[in-house]
Write a structure and sequence with these properties.
With about 325 residues, the chain is an all-alpha fold. It has a single domain, classed as Farnesyl Diphosphate Synthase (Orthogonal Bundle). Helices cover about 70% and strands about 0% of the residues. It has a two-stranded antiparallel ribbon. Helix 8 runs antiparallel to helix 9. The radius of gyration is 21 Å and the shape is globular. The relative contact order is 0.11.
């Protein structure tokens, strides 16, 4: 079973949990405006990949049963709905979530989606107060770590960035929320402190893999949002790190600056990013993070009926999708 297969089986349960959570935003004395705004934000900010099942997979590996973690799957959807909208807003793309939801409404809805509703879901769980407290603390930590990573990403300077500095930013902005949800699932399952920490580290590594996957998708889709936003990606630092001379490095940096406003510069920079040498290094490092994720799963062990699904997810997230750009033909001399 793949994680997509699992999502098909449990998607209605997750939708039911989300609907129940939204009802808490429509008290009898209210107008339902908050519920309506969050509902519209959820429709607009639909997650492309069904990673909401990740906490259910962790819980199933720990206990054999994914079901009790359905509320955490809803927390995952709500958190990422908020984070993705705020990311768009930071990049200058979030003037409005949709024709029916303006920027101010969407911003308020994202606060409810990312912070208030997850806490309300946790408070509704039939678990001891100490477990509720630990789960709530994970949400707070996830926001702090994720925000720290996002701020490092926003303030990234290609000239000063290194592959290691970008990975640290990825570990925060993407690894932070994934480590939050994997640790929450482990806590809910009753796992030991040692296993919770291993799942937390798995979430960090998976988050790095998923960010590298997203970077590739951005190039393959032709959206090139990273180039438009001036985002310093890991692949870009590979190109800069491997520049043969200071002059070659300056030329790459110049194309980075121009890529914000020039389609031609974006095309030229994309060809540099897809150079064989850069992709070879990227592939080797991707393989390293994949191996680290699999090593953590091997150390964790657990229910062998459900471990293969998690291993498959790691493989999906660490696939090398990019291919070298075709060589530019050289004009024949006359």
């Amino acid at each position: 079973m793949t994680y997509v297969d699992l999502h098909r089986q449990v998607s209605l349960d997750i939708e039911t949990e989300l609907a129940t959570a939204l009802l808490r935003l429509a008290p009898d004395s209210g107008t339902g405006a908050a519920k309506s705004a969050v509902s519209r934000l959820l429709r607009h900010q639909k997650l492309k990949h069904p990673l909401s099942v990740l906490p259910m997979m962790v819980h199933a590996i720990e206990t054999g049963d994914p079901g009790p973690a359905v509320p955490l799957a809803a927390v995952h959807v709500l958190w990422w709905t908020s984070a993705c909208y705020l990311d768009d807003l930071a990049d200058g793309h979030g003037t409005a979530a949709s024709d029916s939801l303006g920027q101010n409404e969407a911003l308020l809805a994202s606060v409810l989606s990312g912070a208030v509703l997850p806490i309300q879901i946790i408070r509704s769980l039939p678990v001891p107060a100490a477990v509720q407290g630990a789960l709530t603390e994970e949400i707070a930590t996830g926001w702090v770590v994720g925000t720290e990573g996002q701020l490092r990403d926003i303030g990234g300077d290609a000239d000063r960035a290194t592959p290691n500095s970008v990975i640290e930013a990825y570990r925060g902005k993407s690894g932070g929320p994934f480590s939050m949800i994997t640790a929450m699932a482990a806590l809910l399952s009753g796992a030991s402190d040692e296993r919770v920490q291993l799942w937390r580290e798995f979430g960090y590594i998976f988050g790095i893999l998923w960010q590298l996957f997203n970077d590739q998708e951005d190039i393959l889709s032709g959206r090139n949002e990273d180039l438009l936003n001036g985002t310093v990606t890991y692949l870009l630092t590979c190109v800069l790190d491997d520049a043969a001379t200071p002059r070659a490095r300056k030329e790459v940096l110049a194309r980075c600056d121009a890529a914000r406003n020039s389609e031609e510069a974006r095309a030229e920079l994309t060809r540099l990013l897809l150079a064989p040498a850069a992709l070879d290094r990227y592939t080797a490092d991707l393989d390293g993070f994949r191996a680290e994720a699999h090593a953590l799963l091997a150390a964790l062990g657990g229910d062998e009926r459900h471990l293969p699904t998690m291993r498959h997810l790691v493989e999906s997230a660490s696939e090398m999708l990019l291919r070298p750009a075709p060589a530019t033909p050289v004009a024949a001399s006359v």
